[in-house]
Amino acid sequence: MVDPATFDFPVISETVEGAWVENVVRGDPTLERAYVAAARRLVERGAVAVSSNCGFSIRHQAAVAASVNVPVVMSSLLLLPALLRQLVPTNKIAVLTYDSTHCGDDLLGLNDPADRARIVVGGIEGGKFWRDELKRPAPPVDVAAIETDVAACVARLRVKDPQISTLLFECAGFPLVAAAIRRISKLPVYDITSLCRLTIASVA
Asked: Fewest CB within a 10 Å sphere: which of 19, 121, 122, 156?
């Protein structure tokens, strides 16, 4: 998300004061004011849409969207209801997350139990990228480690649920390996960059 090469449009960045991997992933409600302040600064600087670099920021989607007059897409998890309706009812979506122990039903935005039953959640907690992101400062991103951990997670989930036909990356670091995972899994892969491109195309 912060690499200028990711998008073919300019990106403006702001830091959410007090936000670290630990408290964003676990869900610290006291961060909401800082999220709103950062979003307002972005719009003041000319942003025509607002996103975040952590899918767990979906907890602040409503507050941020209510605070600015531009489209707000805090997490790729917003795509889930639409993606489910693209598939035959027997197929499932695998949500690949940085930490599945904190990716509960409250973040998925699905009120229908039948929809929820079609979602499989898997995480890379305990892996190298997971450990590296908890360090301060975080070391350079190890793309090979992300690919290894995500590919292993996808393989585990597909053994358990062969009905998986689509992958959705919650983690904003995973788009670095989206092409590789598409090639390995032969499945469609969606992530936050997919949602950002769609959003920008609608306004710019």
From this structure: 156
Q: Where in the chain are the domains?
A: 21-74+195-203, 76-191
Name residue 17's amino acid: E
Answer yes or no: are the C-beta atoms of 138 and 101 closer than 8 Å. no
Q: Which has the closest alpha carbon to 154: 102, 189, 108?
A: 189
120's enclosing H/E stretch is: strand 119-123
24-33 CB contacts, 8 Å cutoff, 24+ apart: 24/54, 24/56, 24/57, 25/54, 25/56, 25/98, 25/99, 25/102, 26/102, 27/56, 27/59, 27/102, 29/59, 31/60, 32/59, 32/60, 32/63
For residues 11 and 4, is the Cβ–Cβ distance under 8 A? yes
Over residues 20-24, mean pLDDT: 93
End-to-end CA distance of the chain: 18
Residue 60 · residue 31 · CB < 8 Å = yes
What pLDDT is attached to residue 139? Answer: 81
Torsions phi, psi of 92, nearest 5?
-125, 160
Give me the residues paired with residue 190 across strands: 168
For 136-178, how does the pLDDT look when each residue is reduced to its tens digit (9 = 90+)? 777 888 999 999 999 999 999 999 999 999 999 999 999 999 9
